[in-house]
Amino acid sequence: MTMNLTQAREYSKLVDVEKGVVDRRIYHDADVYEAELEQIFARAWLFMCHESQIPNPGDFFLNFMGVDRVIVVRNNEGGINVLVNSCRHRGNAVCRADEGHATSFMCTYHGWTYDLKGALVGVPGFKEVYHEELDREHWGLINAAQVDSYKGFVFATMDPEAPVLFDYLNEGGRWGIDLLVAQGNMVAVGGVHKFTINCNWKFPSDNTPDHYHGVFTHASARLAGYSGTTARRVGSAGVLPQYYPEAGITVLGEYGHGTAARFLPKGWEESFKGDVMNAWHLDETKTSQLDELGRSVANAHLNVFPNLFVPAQSRNVAIRMPKGPKKSEIWMWTFVNADETDEVQKMNRHRTGHHFGPGGLMEQDDGENWDQSTVAMQGVVSARYPLNYQMNLGRGELIKDERGPAHVGVHCSEHAQLWTYRAWSEFMRAADWADLKQNHTRPEGRV
What are the residues whose beta carbons fall under 8 Å from the beta carbon of 119, sequence distance 6 or more? Predict the structure, then answer.
């Protein structure tokens, strides 16, 4: 056991899932953050891009795996490689553009050149100054250990011992992605929104399945009529007369994936007629791709552990990228149904940006909360007191049946958040993937 693992195991105790409390230190401590990069981001499957962004050989997209810059590129055989964007000679970046097309990647420092699979294919002076003794097969770019896609969503992991992507996602992660994919011929469009928020990456991930905050955090948008149904229900004090009456579920998956979902309301069939964004609910060719629970859902927010946000009904996804213990970068992709008209696609893009973009009504509210939570919890006295994640604690019974994935029969709870922190603790504690596979918590019993 290394000292780093010893420290990480101590940090894992900062989450107490039995009591439902989390130590504030995990949201701002530099040592905890460094341990996360090693124990979580160097192990987990991370979202890279959508296949529609790199349709042809040579197409590439730049992303990060933790703090390592990587190139996601379609190779000449049609497969996908994820290459660490750092020359093996002096470490310089071999690709500077955020996305584009290339036949190879050349370091601008000394000209070392790599093919689309990362092999070192060009070394200036190979004969004259290296005397043909440099082992070029050994000095290619670092490749991600595993790369795979699920229904067009490309993921990668740096750990060769990680489970295959399908098993890592398991039902709990695949279910939320299925809800987005079922809506049509979904493709990523319009580039990627990128913006910085001064908060730890876990705050946005924590917020993903949070159906408790909306009526307060987003009161101004709702009272302005942006969300008409909810606005009409808000009382004069900004509080729902009957708090969270909607029916829904919380889906929990192995390795920390969690989704909070609300069911379709009574009479939804009539209300969706003529609604181009929700018309897919009325199309059996689309809904038949989903299980019974999936066909019943109006709104679902999935967090694929550690940091992928999939709000299926909004047709977008986002990663919450760690940029330090107190800084995150949000990357947001917009999806449209390529078979819909240009007018509908434009409406789709506008709605997504208006909602979750850097100037969006909702994301600005959320970002302000995350920023201020980060600032306010760094006090000397406040650090002595943990945060509370006890909503419905011990009252949720995981249901497993033919209708869909393992779930708890409520959507407004903190089961999904605490489930994520449980996984965080297990990743921090595990020596390797063999340890994690053996000792992670399965979604069963009471939570």
Answer: 136, 137, 140, 141
